[in-house]
Write a structure and sequence with these properties.
This is NnrS protein involved in response to NO. The protein is mostly helical. It contains 13 helices and no strands. The longest helix has about 35 residues.
């Protein structure tokens, strides 16, 4: 007698164990541990004056690990966990999932000890492997989401290869790092533009609010078009007058859109955290506008870290926290610890953005910001680990 789908799914989860029972869990856990470890390592490298890490200048390595290491892992965990919504099939788990995670871990460690060519290939293998899995799901799916992911991961592979090849050219490496960050910011603007108002609408309606965010419409399309043009300008010529004007316009539009979502009425901390991630997007765009010539009022590094440590760091953790606290039959993340983790990451991002503006006195802010930001990700990893004991499998 054939096994029922429900029984097969239950047995598959038991055999996979806690870590590999759901795609988000290993990727979110290891991405958080990676973020928690790599930032203090970078500060130590910066203070010690090392000349090279993994065949790259230290600053380029730091950017590479955040943009082409951390971000793809979070994206993979989110997209692979969402595939049942598109295909009706069980998500990856067990040994196939462990294989994907091993490829990602190899990309983080092998380049540290292997020849440059080997490290380059191993690093690019993960996004290509995820693209292959998403291609398989796209064939079975009836929606376009998996195809969107399928397009993104080959681009991340190409970006990772190019970033390593041009690591010695500061200008090109910086442009490629900005490009990777811009992709993350555009994802926040596009996906967040649908997800955040939808969740806000549900939360406010459940509380009896009369005025709720408007559905996604033409204004959101305009915001994305102007925002995309502004990000393209920031990537290609961040100091130009045209880029500055586009960034200023995008800042205003993002701010108006965020205000239309009425986040100040929320009582749900998990949804409010998503609003904070979008607020960092506004801050980053505004600082990028102020860093352009004219007015050149703030250091460009402040805008870059408002985008990376602020918008990407906070929004990815907010998404991870919500997903890990609400999904997974073998245990949920500890919501209380995740909330504290989000507070630490926000505080760390504030100090990291402020550090370049402090001039010669920037080092204490840099170290404190790194400690808070990485501490937040370490705490989130603990929230996932202790969540298993908090809500054991049945």
């Amino acid at each position: 007698m054939p096994m029922s789908p429900a029984l097969a799914a239950s047995r598959s989860r038991r055999e996979a164990g806690w870590l590999f029972a759901a795609p988000f869990r290993p990727f979110f856990l290891f991405a958080s541990l990676h973020a928690a470890a790599s930032v203090p390592v970078w500060v130590w490298i910066y203070v010690s004056g090392a000349n090279e890490v993994a065949h790259m200048p230290p600053l380029v390595w730091h950017a590479h690990e955040m943009v082409f290491g951390y971000l793809p892992a979070v994206m993979a965990g989110y997209l692979l966990s969402s595939t049942p919504n598109w295909t009706g099939r069980l998500p990856a788990s067990g040994w196939p999932l462990a294989g994907l995670v091993s490829i990602w871990l190899a990309g983080r460690t092998v380049p540290l000890v292997a020849p440059a060519a080997v490290g380059l290939l191993v690093d690019a293998a993960f996004p290509l492997a995820v693209a292959f899995v998403l291609m398989r799901e796209a064939r079975a799916g009836r929606a376009a989401q998996s195809r969107h992911g399928l397009m993104l991961f080959p681009l991340l592979a190409a970006g990772s290869i190019a970033h390593r090849l041009f690591a010695g050219d500061h200008d090109v490496a910086s442009l490629l790092a900005r490009l990777g960050i811009a992709v993350g910011i555009l994802l926040i603007a596009a996906v967040g533009g649908r997800l955040v108002p939808s969740l806000t609408r549900n939360a406010l309606a459940a509380g009896g609010a009369e005025r709720v965010p408007e559905p996604y419409g033409r204004f959101d399309v305009v915001v994305l078009l102007i925002g995309s043009a502004a990000l393209a300008g920031w990537v290609a010529a961040p100091a130009s007058v045209i880029s500055g004007a586009l960034l200023a316009a995008a800042t205003l539009l993002h701010l108006v859109r965020l205000a239309r979502w009425r986040g100040w009425l929320l009582r749900a901390a998990d949804v409010l955290a998503l609003h904070l991630g979008c607020l960092w997007l506004v801050v980053g765009t505004g600082l990028a506008a102020l860093a352009a010539d004219p007015p050149g009022a703030v250091p460009p590094d402040a805008a870059l870290h408002a985008f990376s440590a602020g918008a990407i760091g906070v929004m990815t953790m907010a998404v991870m926290a919500r997903l890990a606290a609400t999904r997974g039959v073998t245990g949920h993340a500890r919501a209380d610890l995740a909330l504290w983790a989000l507070g630490l990451v926000n505080a760390g991002a504030v100090l990291r953005v402020a550090a370049p503006m402090a001039g010669v006195d920037h080092l204490p802010l840099l170290v404190a910001g790194a400690a808070l930001w990485s501490g937040g990700f370490a705490l989130f990893a603990l929230a996932m680990i202790f969540g298993r004991k908090h809500r054991p499998a049945r």
